[in-house]
Every structure is written in C-alpha cells, then in structure tokens.
Design goal:
The complex is a heterodimer of chains A (about 160) and B (about 100). With about 160 residues, chain A is α/β, with parallel strands linked by helices. In chain A, about 55% of the residues lie in helices and about 15% in strands. Chain B is elongated. Classes of the chains: A alpha/beta (about 160), B alpha+beta (about 100).
Chain lengths: ~160, ~100
C-alpha cells in the first residue's frame, strides 16, 4: 500500500458545506498539501462538485472561490486528475454490477473512484457509508470518518 | 504543520487535536471571531512520526487559504445530494436501455 488517496467528491463537499466531518476533510487536504499523502481522482470529481453547486447556488463568488481553490490544488499537483483508463472502467463496471435488488447496487460514479483506487493500490476515502457497506469485499475503501486511522496506517 | 481553528471546532475535536500535536508535532492556533486566543504546541519533540520539512511558499499559501475558505450553506446533507445525483444517472441509463 502506498500513500495514494482517492477522495470522493463528498469529501470536498463535507469541507465546503461545513458538515460534521469538515475538520477531517480539511485534515486530509492539509496532509496532501504537506506531501504526506498524494490525492488522485477521476476527472468527474470536479464535474460532480460543480453539479452540486449548480443545484445549491446562493453566492456565485463564494462558489468561485472554492472552485478556484480546487484548481490550484490541481495546478500544484496536490490533486492529480486522471481520465479513467480502460482497466479502471472495466473494474468500475465489475463493482457497479455487484449487489442485489434488496441491498441495492453501487453507483457507477462511486465505482469509478473506487476502481481508480484498486488499480493504483490506493484507498478510496468516501463519506458515503452505504457504498462502503455494499463494496467492502473489494477492499481499498474507507469511510471519511475513519481517515485518521487510514493516515496513521499509510504514513 | 501549523494551522488555525475556531473555538467551536477545538472543543469538538479536542482529542483528535491533542493526537495531532503529540504524534505529528502540529502547532494549532485557536481563535475566536478571528482573534487568536491560545496555541496548542507539542510538550516535547521526540514523539513525532517524522521531521517536517518547511513547505514552499505556494503550498503554505494553500494551507493558510484552506482554513479561511468560506463555508457554504445547504439545508440538505451534500453527501445525500450527491448520492441522489448519482442514482438519477443510473435510473436515466436504465430507462434509456429499456
């Protein structure tokens, strides 16, 4: 296991919207800025965050501040954005087709993040505990709430 | 690593903050309404996991900015909103397929 972390879009949203795990999300980003971990995410991360902004837009300037900050993280290579390869997409399809009608199926978007983590021997950190419950058997996935333990394990 | 947090966060995360200061050597300034009140610093330096190298100016600026970004408001849980957006895509794809 290396120090690569794949943050779900909801990790950034937790920070941006000041939810209960805001400080944990900030801690994850600050570890990346300090080069203690490396963030890597599929290209849909920025689109998903923008999509949530689009439905909850009160102040365009503040939204712009957050998007600008994300762009700076990308420019500084603190957050690496990758277009998912064939191997990642095939793994994502495999993940998304697990589950059953009763427990539900993993969403393809979550699965793309998760597949990126699996293919790169990284850890997908998400605030979506339902996804974690559905796909635990694939490994390489942890809840944002458990991030501190993840960090202590990989550094 | 040095950072600044508000009193409410400090109260809520005190145990975690102590771990960060003790194990990683972080220095945390606690402020109220933008005014620094106190600073948590390691009692000793021997327990830190690793010696920190100074950040370059751009990364230090990003770190400072991280703690001063405005918090946006939303009545719903953003994780639920995102989950809804993702599930809608699946529903649309299934309908298109049928």
């Amino acid at each position: 296991m290396n120090n690569l972390i794949v943050p779900d879009a909801n990790v950034f949203l937790e920070m941006i919207y000041g939810r209960s795990l805001q400080e944990t999300a900030r801690q994850l980003i600050s570890h990346a800025i300090a080069s203690e971990i490396q963030l890597i995410a599929p290209s849909l991360l920025l689109d998903e965050i923008t999509e949530v902004f689009c439905g909850n837009l009160d102040d365009l300037q503040e939204v712009q501040n957050h998007l600008s900050y994300l762009e700076q993280l990308v420019n500084e290579k603190i957050l690496l954005i990758v277009v998912p390869s064939l191997a990642i997409r095939i793994k994502a399809l495999e993940i998304a087709r697990t589950g059953n009608p009763k427990s539900g199926y993993p969403e393809l978007s979550n699965s793309l993040y998760h597949a990126l983590a699996i293919v790169n021997d990284a850890i997908f950190v998400t605030n979506d505990s339902k996804h974690v419950a559905k796909v635990n058997k694939f490994g390489h996935v942890e809840k944002l709430a458990d991030y501190q333990k993840v960090f202590e394990r990989i550094v | 690593m040095q950072r600044t947090i508000d009193v409410t966060t400090a109260r809520r995360q005190f145990g975690t903050l102590l771990d960060e200061v003790f194990y990683k050597g972080d220095v945390i300034t606690i402020e109220r309404k933008g005014k620094p009140l106190a600073r948590l610093v390691p009692a000793t330096t021997e327990n830190h996991y690793q010696t920190k190298t100074p950040l370059d100016s751009e990364r230090q600026r990003l770190l400072d900015q991280l703690n001063s970004l405005p918090t946006l408001s939303m009545n719903e849980d953003p994780t639920e909103v995102l989950r809804h957006i993702r599930s809608q895509k699946r529903i649309r794809a299934m309908k298109d397929h049928e």
